[in-house]
Design goal:
Elements lengths: L2 E6 H11 L4 E4 L6 H12 L6 E4 L3 H13 L4 E5 L1 H6 L1 H9 L5 E6 L13 H5 L6 E4 L3 H16 L7 E6 L7 E6 L2 H7 L23 H17 L1 H15 L6 E4 L6 E5 L3 H14 L4 E6 L1 E3 L3 H8 L4 E6 L10 H10 L7 E6 L9 H17 L5 E3 L5
């Protein structure tokens, strides 16, 4: 029988990596992800997880160690946040182009300056084009489930790409929630043993990631782009199989009262659950509103997004990062681009909020929805607003 446990979400993420029988953990602490790698160190020290635990001198070194471990055929896991993700930045491109199926939990954190340890999505958006599969979660159960799914997806011979699982720093990472733990035997059935077909072998040495002159670089990048897009079907297949086996279902784009709503809001991450409460309240007052949640960030789910918003007149997008000097928020910009050629499409209004850990309450989401509707009726489509700034 599956067991329900009250546990801090960071610890549940670590235990998901343990249940997946991770071989190597390369770790460097940074708030708010430190509890993940601390708990993994405890699990290894106590003998609960038979893995090599590599404490490195920086996040750059952590990802570099992950490259070597994964290339040698080890199931590999790490975690980071904020500036730590930035310090890894150049190595992230290597992991994806060399098709190394590393799994990484990112406890999303605001970037400096000014210094903030609190959560927003500025770190996520800085690495959106590094070639990794990227999944957003809303609560602790989804965090555990999607770390398990990440190993199966990443290591699938049709994929062999690294995956980030994004969970909001502090809003999720440090919260205690009731989480259903699957039986280890069931996890073992779901995640097959890792057999990396491209692994380094000292008896058959090869070169990996070597110099590419202009005559082949473009072809390499085109192949990488096509391959990342092709993984969506494997991701969907994995989520379907997870739903059949464990009874919890995941989709690239998930809707809440959205099918017949003329006004939609789009969110990502843990704020979505607060937004649901606001939608319930406004619907109770007679407002024709629904919610769309974007779970799969890369590869971007174009078809699913278009289907989810096709009946809406207004789409209000909440970003938790700023595209400085641009159209407001990076998610809103991508949504507009995805809908550009649609004959029937909603008017898209962008808001940026929740920066640096700033909370958005149920009343705040109500306010955003009402302001978004007003902008759609009276303002320019290109307008956006940074929500929560004191006048």
């Amino acid at each position: 029988m599956a067991e329900r446990v009250g546990i801090e979400v960071s610890l549940a993420v670590a235990e998901a990596a343990m249940m997946a029988n991770t071989d190597v953990v390369a770790a460097y602490p940074i708030t708010p992800q430190t509890h993940i790698v601390e708990h993994l160190a405890e699990l290894v020290a106590d003998g609960a997880l038979d893995a090599a635990y590599i404490p490195v001198e920086s996040e750059h070194s952590a990802m570099s160690a992950c490259l070597g471990a994964s290339a040698a055929g080890a199931r590999t896991f790490t975690a980071t946040a904020g500036q730590g993700l930035e310090l890894m930045h150049e190595v992230l491109y290597v992991a994806s182009n060399m098709q190394l199926p590393v799994v990484m939990a990112v406890a999303n954190r605001a970037l400096s300056s000014p210094l903030s340890v609190w959560g927003d999505h500025s770190d996520v958006m800085s690495v959106r084009d590094t070639g990794w599969i990227q999944i957003f979660v809303e609560n602790g159960q989804e965090s555990l489930d999607n770390v398990l799914c990440a190993f199966r997806i990443a290591e699938d011979p049709r994929v062999l790409l690294p995956i980030m699982v994004h969970l909001d720093g502090f809003y999720l990472s440090h919260v205690i929630e009731p989480i259903v733990y699957p039986e280890q035997s069931e996890v073992d059935k779901f995640i097959p043993p890792f057999k990396y077909a491209l692994r380094l072998d000292t008896d058959n040495p090869v070169s990996m990631g070597t110099f590419a002159p202009p005559v082949v670089y473009s072809e390499t990048k085109k192949a990488q782009e096509l391959h990342l897009r092709s993984t969506k079907e494997v991701i969907l297949e994995c989520w379907r199989e997870f739903g059949k086996q464990f009874g919890r279902n995941y989709c690239p784009v998930e809707s809440y009262h959205a099918e017949d709503a003329s006004i939609l809001m789009l969110t990502m991450g843990s704020f979505s659950e607060t937004a649901m409460t606001a939608v319930d309240k406004l619907r109770g007052e007679g407002m024709d509103v629904g919610l769309v949640r974007l779970r799969l960030w890369r590869p971007f789910p174009f078809e699913e997004l278009r289907e989810a918003v096709k009946n809406a007149d207004v789409l209000i997008v909440l970003d938790r990062a700023i595209s400085y000097g641009g159209p407001g928020g990076p998610v809103c910009s991508e949504i507009r681009s995805a809908l550009y050629n649609e004959v029937k499409k909603p008017k898209v209004v962008g808001f940026v909020g929740g920066l640096g850990g700033r909370d958005i309450t149920v009343a705040g989401f109500e306010d955003i929805i009402k302001k978004g509707l007003d902008i759609s009726q009276n303002g320019s489509e290109e307008e956006f607003e940074i929500y929560g700034v004191r006048e």
